Amino acid sequence: MNELAIELQAVYKSFGRTEVLRGVTLQVARGKTFAFLGRNASGKTTTIRLLLGLLKRDDGATRVLGLDPQVEPLELRRRVGYLAEDQTMYGWMRVEEIVRFVAPFYPTWDHDLALKYLRDFELPLRTRIKHLSKGQNVRLGLVLALAHRPELVILDDPALGLDPIMRKQFNRDLITHLQCEGRTIFYSSHLLYEVEPVSDEVAILDQGRIVRQAETESLRRDVKQIILSCEAYLTIRQHLAVLDERDDGDRVAVNVERAQTAMQLIAREGIEHCVVDLNLDEIFEAYVAGRRGVTSAAQPQAELQPTC
Amino acid sequence: MFLRIEKGSAVPISRQIADQIATLCASGGLRPGERLPSVRELARELAVNQNTVLRVYERLCGDRLLEMRHGQGTFVSGRASKTRFAAHRARLIDELRQITRQAVGLGLSPDELHELLAEAADGVTPREPAAAIEEPKR
After folding, report:
1. Residues A171, B47: C-beta atoms closer than 8 Å
2. Which chain A residues are Cβ-neighbours of B49 within 8 angstroms?
3. CB within 8 Å: B12 and A220
4. What is the dihedral of CA B50, B53, B56, B62, to 10 degrees?
5. What is the pLDDT of residues A82-91, one digit of tens each?
6. How close B53 gets to chain A, by Cα (Å)?
7. How close is the nearest chain B Cα to the Cα of A189, in Å?
8. Distance, CA of A162 to CA of A154 (rounded, Å)
9. Non-local CB neighbours of B53 within 8 Å, separated by 6+ positions
10. What ipTM was predicted for this assembly?
11. What region, left, alpha or beta, does residue B131 occupy, with left being phi > 0 and alpha being psi -120 to 50 degrees?
12. Which of A5, A50, A53, A126 is placed for a possible disulfide with A73 were both Cys, Cβ 3.0 to 4.6 Å?
C-alpha cells in the first residue's frame, strides 16, 4: 500500500497571467494530521482544489490516495471527505433533509454514523440551514464530509469565522472523530496558534511555493532567534541559514533555520549571544515576511529570496 | 489532574504538558501509583494531538517519572522517587537562577537576596512525611 496519502511534485498552476502555484512539492503520510499554512491568497485553496480534481494543474504530478485526481476524480472523491472554505448549502433545506440529500452520492455512506455525528455535534435536525449559526454550519459540513468514512479528510480553513470556544471544540472534534480513528487530515489555516496543538506536521506556503515542511515540534527546535553583536554576526553570517534579521545599531536579532548548527558554530567562535525560543506565529512570520538587511552588510543571500 | 495549555506560547506544547505533570508529581499533586488519564482522554480534554500526549507520556516514562502498565494505563511511578527528586531539583535550581538574575537586574545585593530567601523560608512550614519531593534515605 502507498504510504503517502498526498503527494505533490513540482505543481504549477496559473490563472491567466497570474501564476498562483510555482512548483509546489509536498508529501503527507497516511494517518497524519497535516496543517497547510499560508497567508491569504498564497495558493492554499488552489492547491486543495487541485487535490480534489476540481482544477487542472498546468505542470507537475499529483497523487491523492494513489490516484491522479485529474484522471479519476470521481473514485477519489468517494474516498475523500471535503469541507470547502465557503461551503454553501441549500439554505431552505432542513438539517435532516440535506443529510438524506447528500447520502446517495456516496456508496459507503453510513447513515447511522451521520445521525451519531449530528447528535454528538448537537445539531438540530429540523432547523433550516439558513438559520444555523456559523459554528453549526461548519459542524454540519463536517458531518457531510465524514459520514462516508473517508480515508482522507481535506478541510479548507474550517476554523474561519469560528469564535475561540467553537475553535477549541472543533479541534476536539478533529481529535476525537478523526485522529483517534487513524485517518489522514489535511487542513489549511492561517490561525497558527490553533494549528499547533493539533497538527503532526506543517507546511508553509508562500507565494506559490512551499518554503518549509516539517514536524511541528522539530520546526520549533530548528528555528530560533539568536541575538548577538552586529560585528560578530557579520563574521559568521554566511554560515547561517538566515530567515530574517533586525538590528538596533550594535546588536542584531536574527532568526535562523538549523539553529543547533548555528549555536554550535557561535559557541565554537566564542561569540557572546543569547537564544530566544520562537512561537509558531513568529516562525511563520520569519518565513513569509522575513526581512534581511543589516546596516554595513550587503552580502548576497543564497538561502532564500527576500519576500514581499 | 488539571493542566493548562498556553497557545501561542514560545514554550512548545509538549514541554508545557511534561513540565506540568513533573511539577504535579514533585509537589504531591499526583501521588505515586496514581493513574493518569489515558492518552486519548487527555488529548481530547486539552484539545491536543494524541501523538503529542503519547510522546510526553513516553518521555516521562523514560525519565522514570511515569510507568506504563500493559493494558492498565499510565501511572505515577512508585519506585523512582529518586529520579523524580533529581529532576525536580534541577528545575528548581534553574528557576532560582532566573530569579537571581532578575534580582540582580533590579539592583538587589546578594545579602539582600539571602535575607529575602530566609524570610520566605521562615514562612513555609515543613512538608508532611508523605511529600513526594522527599529524598529517600535508603
Report:
1. yes
2. 33, 175, 179, 197-200
3. yes
4. -70
5. 998 877 788 8
6. 10
7. 15
8. 18
9. B17, B39, B42, B43, B46
10. 0.76
11. beta
12. A53
